[in-house]
Each structure stands twice: as structure tokens, then as C-alpha cells.
Description:
By secondary structure, the protein is an alpha/beta fold. It is 24% helix and 38% strand.
Amino acid sequence: MDATVAVTEVNSVGPNTVAIVLESPDGFDARPGQFVKLSATVDDEDYARFYTLSSPDAHDTFEITVGVDPEEAGPFSQHLLDLEAGDELDISGPFGNEYYEDESTIVVLAGGPGVGAAVGLAERALRDGGSVALVYKDDAPAHEERLADLRERGATVVVTDGDLADHVDDVHDDDAQVFVYGFADFVQEAADAVDAAGGDPADAKVENFG
Ligand SMILES: Cc1cc2nc3c(=O)[nH]c(=O)nc-3n(C[C@H](O)[C@H](O)[C@H](O)COP(=O)(O)OP(=O)(O)OC[C@H]3O[C@@H](n4cnc5c(N)ncnc54)[C@H](O)[C@@H]3O)c2cc1C
């Protein structure tokens, strides 16, 4: 589905990280783990980039979380950081096949801006009565309030800027569906950690941000 939608809220949720709430177009439905394509013209250049749902559902509105690495990112993500309520964006989607399908036990591994997808998914799984472990790697963490709330509601939540493998080993569960969200280096580190913990990385649902 292609649509032009209004931004309804923009909230800072950590260093260089914003959560952007958008109107859901009529008939739009997306599950945690799916992503949308956002398009805009910035300084006369046309851009299109993908962002993963960071809300537990997409009824009426949905949220994405954008993390901008000042050393790596380009003008488009900076443009998203500067959005305000009332601005409009062109979206298409949802896309992706590696999404939450009501699994009852989940382990979510998130790196950098992958934390948005992770909190949305974890919130949805807890709401559905599931069991949740979330390991988040970042040296400047975002979404701390929602992570604390998840912890209070019974999820195992680990935030680290160190070696992922020890923490993945601690939460490893043969019966859990593993989800991985982040840029390519993190995805590789997560696959190695799952393998080292005795799991099969090929069974994980993985979204590589590039
Ligand atoms: C399926 C999919 C889902 C995605 N979901 C999200 C999401 O939920 N949230 C989100 O913030 N981004 C997400 N991305 C990444 C997003 O689409 C953009 O690539 C990102 O915002 C940078 O866009 P840019 O135009 O500013 O920089 P670009 O010029 O596109 O960035 C160039 C390169 O810099 C590196 N880079 C950029 N930003 C970062 C960063 N923050 N950390 C580490 N390396 C970085 C990457 O290697 C990237 O390819 C997703 C990408 C894909 C493919």
C-alpha cells in the first residue's frame, strides 16, 4: 500500500534517537518485525529508506524508531530527526516476512536502532501472554523507559555495550524463537552468539538494516 500520512508525534527517546508516530492509512495493518518504506525529498535529492515498526501494533497509528549515527548516517535519517507533528511522509508497505507470528517464547537481540523493533515486539508478546528475553547492545542506549517497563512486567532485559555472546548464552532457550534487528555487523555478532549458545542461527528471524 502507498499513502501519504501525517506525523502525529515525535519524541526523543535517547541520544540521536526519535520515536515517530504516524497515522495508519485506511486498511493498513502491520505486525511487529515488519517494516515500511519512507520516501522524501531532502535538499533536492529523492530518498527512500526502510524503518521497522516499533509499536506493538498498527491500529490507528504506528510508530517507528530512528537512530542516527552522526558519523555514518546520511541526510535522510537526519531529516527524520527534525520532523514535527503535522509534517507528512510518503510511506509504502508493510514489507518483510520475518515478523512476530504469536510465538509464545521469544528471545530478541537488538543492536543500535534495532531497539525500536525489539521493544515493540516484546510489548506485543507480553501482551499476548508470552515469555520474553531481550538483549540490547548499544553504547548510548535508547528507549530506556520502555525497557524498564518491560522488565517490570516480567521480561528479562539486558542492556550491554560489551560482548553479546555471554548474555545470549544466559537467555538461550531451545524452545524460543530468536529475532535479530540491527545493522550488518550486529547481525553477524548475533548469529555467532546464537551459534555459540547452541542454537541454530538459520532458525532466527533476522532483519539486517544494511
Ligand atoms: C529492512 C530494514 C529495516 C530498517 N529498520 C530501521 C529502523 O527501524 N530504524 C533505523 O534507524 N534504521 C532502520 N533501517 C536503516 C535505514 O533504512 C537507513 O539505512 C538509516 O536510517 C540510514 O539512512 P541514511 O540515508 O541517513 O544513511 P545512509 O547514507 O543510507 O547510511 C549509509 C550507511 O551508514 C551506516 N549507518 C547508517 N546509520 C547507522 C546507524 N544508526 N548505526 C550504524 N550504522 C549506520 C550503514 O552501513 C548504512 O548503510 C532499516 C533498514 C532496512 C534495510
